């Protein structure tokens, strides 16, 4: 088993997973379908939370007991959590600018590469975190600022390399479109080839570096946007992913005890041999994905990053059929 889901709390752990999965899907639908929903979720709420975070840290610096004992201050001190929260939120805002054609930037052709840039940044944040574990504790363990025991070793290196390869698996950087109802920013060339490779890599990252959170952010959080893309929002995976990631990060930052110490908390087995196995799978999956992309690019005589390589595939055609055609 990958996780410690058994015993008296197993029912709560499964209920927690189902709730997180369903709530993320629901929250994504609310945020993507209307401009108001997106503005509230990714502009107003983050602004309020930023004030909340600054207040906590300022009060803690002055020795205020309520701040020093605040769950966010005690349990969510890692640089990684804040980096992911604001990088994901920046992605959501940028995607809305493209979707609603906000200002000159939202209408410009060059800004269509923004989704690639922000996703690459998000991947690099995780890659750095994987390499950090390898450097801090090669062949042994280290304890993070949040009190989590992490192993360092080849599994971090393999998955870090898989993340770098995953960046190269993003094709058709400028192939960004808007859906007919303006509900979605579409990236048709981001097909199941990238999505599966990304999901395996990202699950492995959470498993390596977030063992106390991986049950939720490594499974429920990854599956929510993937299920939406495969069943009713074809071509909108990257928007789904950014939305659900930002929403989850906000929740986890404010209510960390849900994952850390409640009946819903789940630990991974945190075994370096299991981590190594998962990391090898992630590396192989991404090597295969990149190999297939380069094969298609060579066959079609196109640059896979500046041009779309999955035209003619079922995923691509279903997504592009949702495109809003200019009058």
From TrEMBL:
Pfam families per record: DUF5692
Keywords for the protein's UniProt record, in alphabetical order: Membrane, Transmembrane, Transmembrane helix
Keyword Metal-binding attached: no
Residues passing through the membrane, by range: 12-31, 38-59, 79-98, 110-128, 157-178, 274-295
InterPro entries: DUF5692 (IPR043747)
Protein name: DUF5692 family protein
């Amino acid at each position: 088993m990958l996780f410690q889901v058994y015993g008296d709390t197993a029912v709560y752990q499964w209920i927690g997973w189902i709730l997180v999965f369903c709530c993320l899907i629901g929250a994504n639908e609310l945020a993507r379908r209307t401009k108001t929903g997106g503005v509230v979720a990714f502009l107003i709420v983050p602004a309020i939370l930023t004030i909340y975070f600054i207040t906590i840290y300022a009060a803690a610096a002055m020795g205020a007991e309520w701040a020093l004992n605040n769950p966010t201050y005690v349990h969510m001190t890692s640089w990684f959590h804040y980096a992911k929260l604001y990088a994901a939120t920046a992605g959501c805002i940028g995607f809305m600018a493209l979707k609603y054609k906000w200002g000159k930037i939202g209408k410009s052709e060059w800004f269509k590469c923004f989704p690639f840039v922000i996703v690459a940044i998000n991947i690099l944040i995780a890659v750095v975190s994987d390499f950090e574990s390898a450097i801090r504790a090669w062949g042994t363990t280290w304890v993070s600022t949040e009190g989590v025991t992490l192993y360092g070793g080849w599994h971090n290196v393999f998955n870090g390399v898989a993340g770098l390869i995953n960046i190269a698996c993003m094709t058709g950087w400028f192939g960004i479109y808007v859906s007919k109802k303006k509900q979605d920013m579409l990236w048709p060339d981001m097909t199941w080839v990238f999505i599966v490779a990304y999901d395996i890599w990202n699950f492995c990252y959470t498993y390596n570096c977030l063992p106390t959170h991986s049950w939720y952010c490594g499974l429920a959080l990854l599956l929510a946007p993937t299920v939406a893309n495969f069943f009713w929002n074809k071509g909108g995976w990257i928007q789904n992913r950014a939305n659900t990631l930002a929403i989850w990060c906000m929740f986890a930052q404010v209510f960390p005890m849900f994952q850390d110490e409640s009946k819903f908390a789940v630990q991974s087995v945190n075994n370096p041999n299991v981590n190594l196995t998962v990391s090898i799978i992630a590396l192989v999956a991404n090597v295969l994905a990149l190999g297939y992309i380069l094969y298609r690019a060579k066959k079609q005589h196109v640059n896979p990053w500046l041009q779309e390589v999955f035209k003619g595939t079922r995923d691509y055609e279903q997504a592009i059929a949702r495109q809003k055609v200019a009058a």
